[in-house]
């Protein structure tokens, strides 16, 4: 609305430009001593055949400056200084009225499917799956706030030749009690042992192939074991999801598409898209500059790609999505490019609404974490360690905190989530628990602690916050501008599928508040105290909203 005032003031004296053109041209100066909006006059230089700084100097005095504190020509710009009092008033009122909904807006409507988390059965959930889970969840929250309806789909890796190996291994060395007690640990043990022994006994691989064939053919024993491995693994995954506070709308994984691939392959045949190459069935994607998509192996077994094609079509038919997102590591970039290209070749225009949302790796001391090479990091352990570390710090800072366990959970888990989301999703980053759970620096606990500090200020007085009282405190200016910008920040995060935009914003707001807090006596009993309290309460509200979008709780005390 303040931008509109600037646009209108300029439109009144610039008949040669439309309001939209003016709005697009307006810039935000880097520092507030250059004003709050800057209009660059170079755009007029051609039309007016004059130097930009001359245009600025002539234009500025003609503008009706009544709604503003000042309008000044500086070089090739006309700078607008907003009226701080009315800006403060409007901003605090808006946040007070909207509350938890401050930042909500409609950028679009309709279902958006989000393929997220998607770990592999009988294997530990990796840090990569954690990234997919928390990024996908944050995107779901951000999409909800911007008008869409997210559908969170956990495309479990629950089918494939590895189940043949696992069945053989279980029958040789497995025990029901072991699997029930600690499913993924033991299933992984059997699987690793299978690989070790198969190195010298190649006949084990034949046996595994035979068991997988049985599974594909619906053999009762094989099916029962498979279903049981899946169920036990899922129990364990669900424990992690519960800790993270994340749920799903669907757990339809790879196996769900077993009976849905034939029609896909048939369509490919009908459309003359399938070719045989070295015994395998492929779709040539040369015109997309991509390697061919592998649809069927020479032994007739279907592949990851075939399932994904079936899944994409199933999702379109089931949800009629307006967008379909796949939050999957950057190493699968080509796979999703191929998938989209094949769907396009099949004549599905909606393939354009499919977006792979890639992300980088989590490293430890600069090295990639891997499930195979033994340096696996067990996610549940990481979360538990983070909670313990949070507990220790809280005990030091706030020994008599009532619901200390719940707060430690929110802080520990929140720290891990925040650390993941503050990095631009494509960047790789190092994970070091001590760094992640610190209460200072660019961390989740720092933002949470700042919010708790704001709350404790509000509790120290009987005076109630009042957004309608005038706030003349100019040292709050940076904070007010940040607060007013929050809805734009949400929009930017939504358009770029980038939760880090929100996390970075929360850090900036927390820093701005801590600076204000260090320099201003907030609780002085003067006429503006209710307005200062409204400022503090707005900060807490917006920090809480921002953290909620990331999937992080904001404890009132800590
Ligand atoms: N299970 C796969 C993996 O761990 C990820 C699946 C991603 N989703 C998909 N529709 N392909 O690598």
UniProtKB/TrEMBL annotation:
Pfam families in the record: Arg_tRNA_synt_N (PF03485), DALR_1 (PF05746), tRNA-synt_1d (PF00750)
Species name: Lacticaseibacillus saniviri JCM 17471 = DSM 24301
Cellular compartments per GO CC: cytoplasm
Alphabetical keyword list: Aminoacyl-tRNA synthetase, ATP-binding, Cytoplasm, Ligase, Nucleotide-binding, Protein biosynthesis
Entry superkingdom: Bacteria
Arginyl tRNA synthetase N-terminal domain residues: 4-82
Start and end residues of each DALR anticodon binding domain: 447-558
GO molecular function per UniProt: arginine-tRNA ligase activity; ATP binding
Self-association state and partner proteins as the record states: Monomer.
Keyword Protein biosynthesis found: yes
Localization terms from the record: Cytoplasm
InterPro entries listed in its UniProt record: Arg-tRNA-ligase, Arg-tRNA-synth_N, Arg-tRNA-synth_N_sf, ArgRS_core, DALR_anticod-bd, Rossmann-like_a/b/a_fold, tRNAsynth_Ia_anticodon-bd
Family: Belongs to the class-I aminoacyl-tRNA synthetase family.
Catalytic activity: tRNA(Arg) + L-arginine + ATP = L-arginyl-tRNA(Arg) + AMP + diphosphate
Keyword Transferase: no
Motif ('HIGH' region): 119-129
Protein name: Arginine--tRNA ligase
UniProt EC number: 6.1.1.19
HAMAP family in alphabetical order: Arg_tRNA_synth
Biological process, per Gene Ontology: arginyl-tRNA aminoacylation
